[in-house]
Design brief:
about 350 residues; alpha/beta; 5-stranded mixed β-sheet; 12 helices; 11 strands; about 50% helix; about 15% strand
Length: about 350
């Protein structure tokens, strides 16, 4: 009997010891492994960041395609964690509304021209001056270097991804212009500072963005346009002009921004931001080459239309350079009055143009 009682007591003690060890083991596992298992079960699958991208260029334009390629490259390098929906042709926000559309979050990313919001970007306007740009690559590199050196406060309400700029802006008209006197009184489509060029050269500036230029030339609302060669094919304007005046010595450019809504940018994880930065840096030269290739195609299209190219004589070219100098001087005076060191900025820009022009 005593043996039976002893066995029962020992069995009970062993059982209690086992239960105690089990409870202790559960307590030790629960805070770590149990919580981890709970977190893993609760963690949602990786959420895709979906972004909208407003592009003012029409879908068939080479620069629109370059912008869309940039978006696809972002998607590829983020392994699908970012999806960018592009809206070409100003279908989401118009050319003039694009920048404010990004600031207000109507679109997350936008591509358009600084010149379409004249007076808002006084520091960046310097890029559009008639500095004698030799190519789209030179203008694009110079514009990015200029921005990187100065980082103007006028762009603090967005995150700048990169900038690109077309090759030398030339004069394309319905009737021949071989000297300044031929231009007098002609209505010329222009934007931003190119409107000032038209004025000092004796023409009548008519402000309008590229999308409306074809119809304006076709209907005679304007008699010519200041634009790079690429517009003759990219915007089909070679069909509605007859002459191109090769005034490359006063070749201007138009700087174009690719910017992102600042809150949206700040919401991205650092590794995603770095991918955007890396791809954007690579696409500076991509866009520069696209501009140059488009100028070559524009020239060929111009020739197909049997349009005439007029080269200025050295003497006449010097006259045009002298005529546009007051535009640069006036810009410096106006911007200096706003507390901006325009002379220093122009010096930075000229040095970059000279370096990249070579």
């Amino acid at each position: 009997m005593k043996k039976l009682l002893c066995s029962i007591v020992c069995g009970f003690l062993v059982l209690m010891l086992c239960l105690s060890c089990t409870r202790k083991a559960e307590e030790e596992v629960s805070p770590i492994e149990g919580a981890a298992m709970s977190d893993e079960a609760a963690a949602p699958a990786g959420k895709v960041v979906e972004l909208s991208y407003s592009i003012f260029f029409p879908p068939a334009h080479a620069q629109c395609k370059a912008g869309e390629d940039w978006a696809r490259e972002i998607e590829k390098r983020t392994s699908g964690r970012v999806k960018i929906n592009t809206f070409p042709g100003g279908t989401l926000t118009s050319a003039g509304e694009c920048y404010d559309g990004v600031v207000k979050g109507i679109s997350d990313i936008g591509m358009s021209c600084f010149a379409y919001t004249r007076g808002r970007f006084p520091v960046m306007e310097a890029v559009d001056l008639p500095m004698g740009y030799s190519s789209g690559m030179a203008a694009t590199r110079a514009a990015n270097e200029y921005y990187a050196r100065i980082k103007p406060a006028e762009l603090y309400d967005v995150h700048v991804l990169y900038i690109h700029a077309h090759g030398p802006g030339l004069l394309h008209t319905k009737r021949p212009v071989a000297k300044l006197e031929d231009l007098k009184g002609m209505k010329i489509r222009s934007t931003g500072l190119s409107a000032k060029l038209v004025e000092v050269l004796g023409g009548v500036p008519v402000a309008m963005p590229q999308p409306g230029t074809y119809e304006a030339l076709q209907k005679g609302v304007v008699e010519g346009t200041f634009a790079p060669m690429e517009t003759l094919k990219g915007w089909k304007q070679g069909e509605v002009i007859d002459y191109t005046t090769d005034c490359v010595s006063i070749g201007y450019t138009t700087a174009m921004f690719v910017v992102m809504n600042k809150d949206k940018w700040n919401s991205l994880p650092p590794e995603i931001q770095q991918i955007f930065t890396d791809v954007s840096a690579e696409y500076v030269d991509v866009h520069g080459k696209v501009w140059d290739d488009a100028d070559t195609d524009g020239l060929a299209f111009n020739q197909e239309q049997q349009n005439t190219i007029i080269s200025l004589s050295p003497e006449e070219s010097a006259r045009w350079e002298a005529a546009v100098k007051p535009v640069i001087d006036a810009y410096i005076k106006t911007v200096q009055a706003q507390g901006i060191d325009a002379e220093q900025n122009i010096a930075i820009l000229k040095a970059s143009i000279e370096k990249n022009g070579k």
